[in-house]
Amino acid sequence: MLFWLTELSDGGDFFNLFRYITFRAGGAFLTALIFGFLFGKPLINVLRKRQGKGQPIRDDGPEGHFVKAGTPTMGGLLIIGALVTSTLLWARWDNPFVWMVLFVTISYAAIGFADDYAKVKKQNTAGVSGKVRLLLGFLIAAIAGWWAAQYHPEALSGRLALPIFKDTLINLGYLFVPFAVVVIVGAANAVNLTDGLDGLAIMPVMIATSTLGVIAYAVGRVDFTEYLDVHYVPGTGEILIFAAGVVGGGLGFLWYNAPPAAVFMGDTGSLALGGALGAIAVATKHELVLAIVGGLFVVEALSVIIQVLYFKRTGKRVFLMAPIHHHYEKKGWAEPQIVIRFWIISLILAIIGLATLKVR
What we know:
Elements lengths: L20 H31 L24 H15 L5 H27 L7 H22 L7 E3 L7 E3 L4 H19 L7 H18 L2 H7 L10 H19 L8 H19 L2 H7 L1 H20 L9 H7 L4 H21 L5
Antiparallel strand pairs: 1-2
Helix pairs in contact: 1-2, 1-8, 2-3, 2-8, 2-9, 3-4, 3-9, 4-5, 4-9, 5-9, 5-11, 6-8, 6-9, 6-13, 9-10, 10-11, 10-13
Pathway: Cell wall biogenesis; peptidoglycan biosynthesis
Main location: membrane
Keywords: Cell cycle, Cell division, Cell membrane, Cell shape, Cell wall biogenesis/degradation, Magnesium, Membrane, Metal-binding, Peptidoglycan synthesis, Transferase, Transmembrane, Transmembrane helix
């Protein structure tokens, strides 16, 4: 919205700064961060008062988690409120990719909120039916995939770009939308599975989002794409502002989610943020790079899939408990030890993902 202040500029004054995506991204970061600090404590007080017993704890979970009983959930509302406010304030409203990513984020947040609400109200971990969640998630992702394809350059629309092999495009045709659905729904559920320890999910989300934000900025500038030899997708640069809002809002949330957590993100936040990662990857034509940047989430999801399939086939378990962060809890690792080591892994993977911009 503040972009329109550029109409007051004569080209050499303060208002001219609003033309620059990097300046507005900085503004979005600070806005989201201040939002988190201002509304974090009041929101937690409201959630604690309304939820009573807080998020129910799994009976079959690690023994150390029972001390967390009574901690309120739905803390993702703080992150979503911060990033939506900052994005609407600082991003251009005429950019279709910004609206596409916001659509996915808010829609998945609504699904997560309904699931969290059902869990708190019933005081069990069942929540909304998994089939209903998946069906709604597929529908939202399909709309987003079609939406992105309409605004991709004709040479890229419906095609899959490969990292490193930058001259190669795979024409998916009508299969692009189903592919986008897999990316967005997969990312949403992978982040959801990762959100099992205090602070575990939010930092890797911030790392992955900031990385994809940099990629979005790069592929949205023709001079950068020519230098890096990557595909140019006009308009994606504005996504950097959304990414900055995620990082600012995420830091504000982490202030209260750091061990011991005063509030949990809940599905409200994890589904929304995971869906946002998938949506950014689809918008920027970097779907495969997301698997690298968000490799931690991929491993968490695969650990569950492997555990379930192997148990059904043999009656035995590969991991002491899935997702894999619980496996390390069972092995005796302290929760902060797991969290910080997983953060380090996320940072390493992000650097590798960024390197694909130059390597060919």
